Amino acid sequence: MHQPRSLLNVILAAFVGCIALACFASSEVKAEIEIEVSLKERYLWLKDSGNVVKQYPIAIGAPESPTIPGVYSILKKVKDPTYYSKSHHKIFPAGPNDPVGVRFMPYLKSATDGKVYAVHGTAWPRWVHLRAAASLGCIRMLNSDVIEVFNQVEVGTPVVIR
Does residue 90 share a domain with residue 155? Predict the structure, then answer.
């Protein structure tokens, strides 16, 4: 009579073991990609599990339209964006002459005025080379650099601006 019960125990132990193994396999440590921005140094760092993968020069917001420090996350990823300039009442088609460059990753939409802040490319690489404070609050990168970052982050990636 003990034999059926011990067979049941073996099957139950095997089942529990499989569940434990499945739980262990799914809890593997994954890389944690993060964007960190220094407004003082005017660099963007792409980090993987806290370690800097690469450093990129950036342009930030001008004094009258500053980049806002804080902790955010990528809300969306847009390849080849089209930009509408409210001040010029003009649409800029996608491409390297687009003021927002070839990639656009918004991380903040202001609740008060609806203004969108993003990490994006630029049609004016000189601003980035100078690491200027010249934008309308966004973080501008060289188009080649923003493509690299765009390809390594996902919606929800943390953006820490200090």
Answer: yes
